[in-house]
């Protein structure tokens, strides 16, 4: 066993779940490919031992192909705990999003697109989110129709998130996104692409509700942790991000 594997095993043995809480494993950006992709079967089996609920934050497939979704669904059979997910931008690439959605739902995934689901007392509000930028650099609806269409899409995704949050009845609420709601967790990426990594509109909506935690992916070179202006903890759980677990997934207790 390598040093990194030993360290991960020690971290696993040190993690004790507080009584009365649910342990959530959160991970994004699996990018399952049709050819040459690693299998996630063993990882999903491991997560089933470590956590009570699995949350996936989009870019589940690499190109949004039906075959990629089928491969992921096959791997998900090794996951024995409830599964919640949102789609990411890559999952839309091939224009097969309806088929991809159907396959994942058939595999038992609670796929959220502006909806909420409550599992074991935790309310999950999910939407993909969209681009638009952060703070005073957020893109405004002005100029060419293409710019206005982009802003309109950002606003529409924010409304989907708000609709999902209004459905949550639990005092323990987690927001599941693909795009980032804050700048902090995308820092490490080139600043030139920040406007395409998320939008402050998402954070503005989150801060109107009593949210315990927010998870997202998308920014592979971002940072693990930040907070919305209102203080809600935000975690970038893209599989590429270094996490306290030493594993591709984060563990959060709610």
TrEMBL record:
GO terms for cellular component: membrane. One of its GO terms (biological process) is lipid A biosynthetic process. It holds the Pfam family Metallophos. Signal peptide: none annotated. The keyword RNA-binding does not apply. Residues 1-20 are annotated as: Disordered. One of its GO terms (molecular function) is metal ion binding. Transmembrane segments: none annotated. This is Calcineurin-like phosphoesterase domain-containing protein. It comes from Rhizobium soli.
């Amino acid at each position: 066993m390598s040093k990194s594997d030993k360290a991960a095993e020690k971290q696993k043995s040190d993690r004790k779940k507080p009584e009365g809480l649910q342990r959530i494993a959160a991970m994004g950006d699996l990018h399952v490919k049709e050819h040459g992709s690693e299998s996630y079967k063993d990882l999903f089996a491991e997560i089933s031992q470590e956590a009570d609920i699995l949350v996936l934050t989009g870019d589940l497939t690499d190109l949004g192909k039906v075959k990629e979704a089928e491969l992921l669904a096959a791997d998900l059979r090794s996951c024995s705990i409830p599964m919640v997910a949102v789609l990411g931008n890559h999952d839309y690439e091939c224009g097969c999003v309806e088929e991809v959605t159907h396959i994942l739902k058939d595999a038992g995934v609670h796929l959220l697109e502006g909806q909420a689901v409550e599992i074991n007392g935790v309310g999950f509000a999910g939407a993909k989110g969209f681009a638009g930028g952060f703070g005073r650099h957020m893109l405004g609806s002005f100029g060419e129709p293409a710019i206005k269409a982009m802003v309109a899409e950002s606003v529409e995704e924010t409304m989907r998130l708000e609709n999902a949050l209004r459905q949550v009845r639990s005092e323990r609420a987690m927001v599941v996104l693909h795009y980032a709601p804050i700048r902090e967790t995308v820092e490490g990426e080139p600043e030139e692409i920040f406007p395409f990594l998320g939008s402050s509109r998402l954070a503005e909506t989150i801060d109107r509700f009593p949210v315990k935690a927010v998870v997202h992916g998308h920014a592979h070179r971002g940072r693990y942790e930040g907070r919305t202006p209102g203080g809600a903890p935000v975690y970038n759980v893209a599989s590429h991000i270094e996490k306290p677990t030493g594993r591709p997934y984060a563990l959060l207790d709610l």
